[in-house]
């Protein structure tokens, strides 16, 4: 039986073989115009040069999954994707990192061009400013699934979702601790909201620890565990910056 490391190694080899057929120009594979779904995940770094080759070779992509695969200059990558794939319906760029100003420029290009997006995952992106995230939400009103885990957002983003996303069915808010329950309650009740938890203030956390030490029952343990998980999530988000 293959180990997980062997499976990952085989997957990376297959991706490398695939990328070797992606030219910077010239003759395209016969199937290139028919390819609409492309997933290249956890292949770091997927250089901007390779991205140029991909958009040249496969002009009709509507489903693009680049989770954990692009280099730091993500702004240029997103601008190229926005220019090349205006009909994009699915975009996953989660767990990527980039410079704040350049990231904003790239995501702004997505907002201005890719109005058919139905799925967007930008989790782990502390580099995107809230105003640019709101622009994407405002202009991409076909969104049905949105993952904003660990993004630097507040109630402002939630209010924009309530105004601009009539078709939204799924929203992931893991690690988004600047959002109030009141704002979330204003969202369409048909939206499945995942991983939203109100932040425990320091006094609340101290009280949870005290209750655990005094009462030591199931409920007190659950409250304490939730508080510690939030602290861990905040630490993870800080490490992404």
TrEMBL record:
Task: Output one GO BP term.
Answer: SCF-dependent proteasomal ubiquitin-dependent protein catabolic process
Listed GO CC annotations? SCF ubiquitin ligase complex
This protein is called what?
A: RNI-like protein
Give the domain of life. Eukaryota
Recorded hits in Gene3D superfamilies, A to Z, give: Ribonuclease Inhibitor
Q: Which InterPro entries match?
A: Leu-rich_rpt_4, Leu-rich_rpt_Cys-con_subtyp, LRR_dom_sf
Per the UniProt record, the source organism is: Rhizophagus irregularis (strain DAOM 181602 / DAOM 197198 / MUCL 43194)
Query: What UniProt keywords are attached to this protein's entry?
Result: Leucine-rich repeat, Repeat
């Amino acid at each position: 039986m293959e180990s997980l490391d062997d499976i990952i190694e085989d997957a990376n080899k297959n991706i490398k073989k695939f990328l070797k057929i992606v030219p910077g120009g010239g003759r395209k594979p016969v199937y290139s115009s028919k390819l609409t779904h492309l997933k290249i995940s956890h292949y770091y770094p997927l250089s901007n040069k390779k991205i140029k080759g991909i958009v040249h070779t496969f002009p009709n992509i509507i489903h693009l999954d680049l989770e954990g695969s692009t280099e730091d200059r993500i702004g240029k990558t997103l601008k190229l994707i926005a220019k090349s794939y205006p009909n994009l319906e699915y975009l996953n760029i989660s767990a990527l990192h980039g410079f704040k100003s350049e990231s904003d420029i790239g995501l702004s290009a997505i907002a201005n061009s890719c109005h058919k997006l139905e799925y967007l995952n930008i989790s782990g992106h502390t580099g995107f400013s809230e105003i640019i995230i709101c622009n994407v939400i405002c202009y991409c009103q076909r969104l049905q699934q949105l993952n904003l885990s660990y993004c630097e957002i507040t109630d402002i983003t939630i209010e924009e979702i309530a105004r601009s996303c009539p078709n939204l069915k799924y929203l992931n808010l893991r690690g988004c601790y600047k959002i109030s329950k009141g704002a979330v309650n204003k969202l369409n009740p048909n939206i499945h909201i995942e991983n939203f938890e109100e932040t425990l203030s320091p006094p609340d956390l101290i009280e949870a620890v005290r209750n655990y030490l005094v009462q030591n029952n199931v409920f007190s343990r659950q409250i304490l565990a939730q508080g510690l998980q939030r602290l861990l999530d905040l630490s993870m988000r800080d490490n992404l910056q």
